[in-house]
Write a structure and sequence with these properties.
707 residues, alpha+beta, 6-stranded mixed beta sheet, 5-stranded mixed beta sheet, 21 helices, 22% strand, flat
Length: 707
């Protein structure tokens, strides 16, 4: 991501939060078949805030589109129309969200949001006009003006919201009245036909805040107060401020405002002549009031977290702050270097064998502190999968609508937490797999009905922690995979490496992950080009994970992804083979033992095997695999580590166990990365004596045996 100004970063962050919220509210409303009052208010407020903040940042295309969508929900909220096409309204919201997300991507990369939303605005205005006509309302009436002319019962005021990008002047920064300071009153009149007068008023504040030592205005809450625009049109936008600029300089500054039809500028002798000039006590009281935690009016209502919102915990206020991910990455790297440095100090060869009680005590304390620091930093990086999972609702909705299928997505274990890097890289693989489930798996409604299934198909996306990894399952109740068709395509592609009859069902189904592989005869918008699923595998492997797929013809398919909870620091078992050292992640080791005579036998192919839980398991001798001299040959003289990978057991033979220690996983150098696929090596780490130890991946070793 390109480096942006802090103001732009805040705008991107908050807008993305609102867009994500809008998408989920719209999808949930479409699913239920109606817009509940709280959903209407939520969409209205979100679009209202996006409109204002985008206008202040001068991103007019975003602001105008948000205003157009906001008008639809203002109409629904105020006149409660009986005829509402929920699906059509949802389409409009999602189309606007997609446009704004595209513009946010441009901003994120350092470019300018330059796309035009004019067509979307026109279609949205046309939809609202037809919407009003269908419900018997005059399409040309300005509802906001009509609302203010009609007396209404007083409604409880909403809690004050944050005013974006306008910093309050600190008391110590306010200048006293001297000969070089002037106090002014200004009243600005705007052309009502220009629209968005409250946003133009905010633009005035933005221009003045750098020049004024103190600034006050009415109405106070321009964006939050829905009646602010009518008040400004009726009475003008009133400002009182103190600045070192002269009258003509101030007039020139204010004259730059667009759609300005009138300007009254008066210099006052002191702040005492100002009709509105809060005292420090009043300002402090107002600040306390606005900083108070927001108390929900309906405790039973489903909570919908808002961006940048303060939350109370057991009566004590705490603040949520956003932190750039690259800063957390750097912090994690430093913690990793501290772990290595600790090992190099406590395991230094120069002090080996020496009895240093005070040193040992200090080393234990250092280890304790480092461990707690590591846990805290890891906790900072852990985020729930919920946001990533919920984005998949949109995939299912769009595909079923375009393909004419019926399917629903069920989320299980969305509160499972993983490293931030995992959530960033797992989104694309999940999207491809779920698209595959809908396109290839879920049948058309009439086909499902004939097969005795419900017309509505189901895709279950679940996650759970299992040891040191998170297991994500994508399961559908569709037609399953056709083994014969996949095998036929694999033969055509020339990717078979052994006779057909030797392939298990799971191995055949795994061919779908091969580059360029597709069983679709026709290329569609969603599939048929043979791209996508191979990207899934590469992304999962980049996270240090594995992916398997299985299917039950006529019943459905399941894809299982296993990913380490964290990718930085893990516990490893250091082993010795001859004069070389290797490390195996503790999470992969079930047990270790010294085999006895008769524990090991040969299968028909000559592979050494041993029994584990009633099943024969292969043995890998590392000294033979890596051609290491000086290693032990007799199995009864060494150690056999029983490792588990992809629900299979593998025995790894080593000379001896050195011990367990925390290891910082480092990537292997680029020039030998290609060799790691043939050696079962997944990375490297630095040991306490400064030597490099290669990290063995039992899953990759298992793959070597299969090949």
């Amino acid at each position: 991501m390109a480096e942006n100004e802090p103001m732009v970063e805040v705008f991107i962050y908050e807008t993305r939060q609102f867009l994500e919220q809008l998408e989920q509210v719209a999808l949930a409303s479409e699913d239920s078949g109606s817009f509940q009052p709280e959903d209407v208010n939520e969409v209205f407020r979100a679009m209202h805030t996006i409109k204002g903040s985008a206008a202040m940042m001068l991103y007019d295309e975003i602001s105008h589109l948000a205003h157009a969508v906001e008008d639809i929900f203002f109409y629904i909220r105020e006149l409660h129309p009986e005829k509402i096409d929920v699906s059509a309204v949802t389409d409009i919201v999602l189309t606007a969200v997609d446009f704004m997300n595209g513009e946010m991507d441009k901003l994120d990369s350092g470019a300018q949001p330059d796309a035009s939303s004019e067509e979307l605005q026109k279609s949205t205005h046309e939809f609202l006009r037809n919407f009003k006509l269908e419900n018997g309302h005059d399409p040309d009436v300005d509802l906001r003006k009509a609302k203010n002319k009609t007396p209404k019962a007083a409604e409880p005021a909403e809690p004050a919201k944050q005013q974006y990008f306008i910093q309050a002047v600190k008391p110590e920064e306010v200048k006293t009245e001297t000969g070089s300071s002037h106090v002014y009153k200004a009243v600005l009149k705007f052309d009502p036909e220009g629209g968005m007068v409250e946003v133009r008023a905010f633009g005035v504040i933005n221009r003045l805040e750098d020049q004024a030592s103190e600034l006050h205005y009415l109405p106070e809450k321009i964006i939050e107060d829905e009646t602010a625009a009518d008040t400004i049109i009726k009475d003008g936008f009133k400002l009182w401020f103190m600045t070192g600029l002269g009258v003509e300089e101030v007039r020139k500054l204010l004259d730059e405002t667009m759609c300005l039809t009138g300007l009254e500028l008066t210099e006052l002798s002191s702040t005492a002549e100002c009709e509105y000039w809060p005292t420090p006590k009043q300002k402090a009281a107002q600040a306390v009031e606005e900083a108070s935690p927001i108390v929900p009016v309906k405790p039973e209502a489903k909570p919908r977290p808002a961006p940048m919102k303060q939350a109370g915990h057991e009566g004590h206020e705490s603040q949520m702050i956003s932190v750039r991910v690259d800063k957390l990455d750097r912090l994690m790297e430093l913690v990793g270097e501290m772990v290595i440095a600790e090992s190099m100090v406590t395991q230094n060869p120069d002090i080996r064998g020496m009895e240093l009680s005070n040193f040992d005590k200090a080393a234990r304390q250092l280890h304790k502190i480092n461990g707690e620091l590591q846990d805290r930093v890891m906790a900072l990086r852990m985020v729930p999968l919920e946001a990533t999972f919920k984005k998949m609702n949109r995939i299912v909705r769009d595909m079923t609508k375009k393909l004419g299928k019926q399917a629903k997505l069920m989320l299980v274990g969305a509160d499972t937490e993983v490293d931030k890097n995992v959530t960033e890289h797992i989104g694309d693989p999940l999207m491809h797999i779920i698209r595959n489930s809908i396109d290839h798996g879920i049948e058309m409604p009439e086909v499902r009905k004939e097969a005795g299934k419900p017309e509505m198909g189901t895709v279950v996306l679940s996650a759970q922690n299992a040891g040191g990894e998170v297991v994500i399952r994508i399961e559908d109740d569709g037609g399953g995979m056709n083994r014969d068709r996949i095998m036929k395509k694999a033969k055509e592609k020339g990717i078979l490496t052994k006779p057909e009859e030797e392939y298990t069902d799971q191995e055949v189904y795994s061919f779908i992950f091969a580059p360029g592989f597709s069983t679709k005869e026709q290329v569609t918008e969603f599939s048929g080009r043979g791209v996508g699923m191979d990207v899934v595998v590469s992304n999962i492997k980049a996270l240090g994970g594995t992916i398997t797929v299985d299917s039950n013809p006529g019943k459905g398919s399941v894809t299982i992804i296993r990913i380490p909870l964290t990718l930085a620091i893990v516990e490893g078992m250091c082993i010795k083979v001859g004069g070389s050292g290797y490390t195996i992640p503790i999470s992969s080791i079930r047990r270790s033992f010294r085999p006895e005579e008769g524990d090991v036998f040969l299968d028909v192919s000559g592979q050494e095997m041993f029994m584990e839980e009633g099943s024969p398991c292969p043995i890998v001798r590392l000294h033979r695999l890596y051609d290491i001299d000086g290693a032990k040959e007799q199995l009864t003289e060494g150690i056999l580590l029983v490792t588990e990978a992809d629900d299979h057991y593998l025995g790894i033979f080593a000379d001896e166990l050195v011990g367990v220690q925390q290891i910082v996983v480092k990537p292997v150098p680029g020039y030998i990365q290609a060799m790691t696929k043939m050696t079962g090596i997944t990375g490297c780490t630095i040991l306490g004596d400064g030597s490099i130890s290669l990290i063995i991946d039992p899953g990759k070793l298992m793959g070597l045996l299969v090949e």
